[in-house]
Amino acid sequence: MTTSSLPDERPLAGIRVLDIATFIAAPFCGATLGEFGAEVIKVEQPGVGDPLRSWGTRTECGDSLVWMSEARNKKSITLDLRLDRGKELFRRLVARSDVVLENFRPGTLERWGLGYETLRELNPGLVMLRVSAYGQTGPYKDRPGYARIAHAFSGLSHLAREPGAKPVMPGSTSLADYFSGLYGALGVLMALRVRERTGRGQFIDIGLYESIFRIMDELAPAYGRSGFVRQPMGADTVNIVPHSHYRTADGKWVAIACSSDRMFERLAATMGRPELVCDERYRTMAERDRRRDEVNAMVADWVASLTAAEVQRRCEASEMACGLLYDIADIFEDPQYRARENIKPMDDPRVGRFHAPNVVPRLSETPGSLDRLGPALGAHNREIYGQLLALDADEIAALQAAKVI
Questions:
Q1: Cβ distance 231 to 249 under 8 Å?
Q2: 3-state SS, residue 265
Q3: Are 263 and 299 in contact (CB under 8 A)?
Q4: H or E segment at 396?
Q5: pLDDT of residue 8
Q6: How many Cβ atoms from other residues are within 10 Å of residue 339's Cβ?
Q7: At 273, is the secondary structure helix, strand, or coil?
Q8: How many whole angstroms separate alpha carbon 400 and alpha carbon 86?
Q9: Is pLDDT of 247 > 60?
Q10: What is the C-alpha separation between 209 and 148, in angstroms, rounded?
Q11: Are residues 78 and 376 in contact, defined by beta-carbon separation less than 8 angstroms?
């Protein structure tokens, strides 16, 4: 594929992506690529569609809120990849595309005659993202799995709790899906860069658990070096004190990040206790770590004597990192979110007013854009089959009647 060099076009203009995956992980890669100009064609099962359409809160049009948000900027076609005619049409689409996104269990596409090596014969420059629970290799490759299992297997869920309490879900049930989609987008972009030099495509292999394990800071090095097994610490952080959540006099919670001795000096002054910096028991991070409960208690008592607004005011005055723990209502009212346009209000013909998280990251010269929300099932059948594959109206009608599309 050739891309235009017009300055007003997005970075991935001219790249065509076939998204045959379901739910979030690989499809989130597609949404990200689509925000920056790629043409992303969502390939869905006729009459059924991606299960994400019915996952979570349903809207008046029948599709869920998460579908409307995460299938952004995509075109939807229906195609049964299990039927011979469906496979034929898919191969024709692959020959005219740059990227395929899939998250079937390893071996599924190969059994259908649509594995990477087969498709690569049709399109030597094809890049394929393959996301699965445990990756394409290893003794667990055939096991099913979702983000929750990835959180457990990566070591994250073990840590997400107060000591001695039941492990909790770390923020979002789909954290591993989103991170895998981001790593997938990074892999696709690197593979496309290599293709520019060599003309050859390749596939990217991601296990859901790997995207979480990769961001677990010093968990692996610490165990490998000394056998240290980190245990749950609740809101605290290993080796850093005070660095936690504290409750205010008005019942709110604030996060205070004190990641260096210099920051502790600022915090001590903010608390009105500058003498703590000269006390050998608290002067260094290592000493504070040895007295974690004691140090946390001092900070907690100070925070508990003030309202959240006053804690924030005092911390900001001394350039101490502090933030209120927000719920989504706080986010909608916050001037920083508003100034950065992090939430984009849209008027959609199917669901009316809709608020969606805006595009990340920001490019100064060729920014991405959220143009449209998730499409209706098969909304682009006539466009893709009629224009891209040059099928006439009778052929398209026959395919529909045969439930191929």
A1: no
A2: helix
A3: no
A4: helix 393-401
A5: 53
A6: 8
A7: coil
A8: 11
A9: yes
A10: 9
A11: no
**Does position 4 have pLDDT exceeding 90, yes or no?**
no
Report pLDDT digits (tens) over 15-42. 999 999 999 999 999 999 999 999 999 9
What is the tens place of the pLDDT at every residue in 188-227?
Answer: 999 999 999 999 999 999 999 999 999 999 999 999 999 9
Directed axis angle between helix 175-198 and helix 25-35, to 10°?
60
Q: Catalytic site residue 177?
A: yes
Torsion of CA 250, 252, 255, 261, to 10 degrees: 20
DSSP assignment of 171-224 equals S-TTHHHHHHHHHHHHHHHHHHHHHHHHS---EEEEEHHHHHHTT-TTHHHHHH
For 361, residues 6+ apart whose C-beta sits below 8 A from its C-beta are none
Cα–Cα distance measured from residue 349 to residue 61, given in angstroms and rounded to the nearest whole number: 10
Residue 5 has pLDDT above 80, yes or no: no
3-state secondary structure of 42: strand
Angle, alpha carbons 73-74-78 (nearest 5°): 160
Distance CA 175, CA 182 (A): 11
Q: What does the angle CA 254 – CA 336 – CA 356 come to, to the nearest 5 degrees? A: 100
Residue 1 has what pLDDT? Answer: 38
pLDDT in tens, 307-341: 999 999 999 999 999 999 999 999 999 999 999 99
Within 8 A by CB and 6+ apart from 103, the residues are 21, 22, 23, 25, 26, 27, 130, 131, 132
Q: Quote the CA–CA distance of 10 and 102 in Å, as a whole number.
A: 24
Q: How many CB atoms lie within 10 A of CB 260?
A: 11
Find the mean pLDDT for residues 67-91. Answer: 97
Which of 177, 236, 293, 334 does the annotation list as catalytic? 177
| pLDDT band (50, 70, 90) for residue 9 | confident
Average pLDDT over every residue of 52-80 = 96
Number of H helices, E strands in the chain: 18, 11
Measured CA to CA, the distance from residue 179 to residue 182 in angstroms comes to 5
Using an 8 Å Cβ cutoff, are 235 and 245 in contact? yes
Q: How are beta strands 74-78 and 39-44 bridged, if at all?
A: parallel
What does the pLDDT average to over 259-281?
A: 95
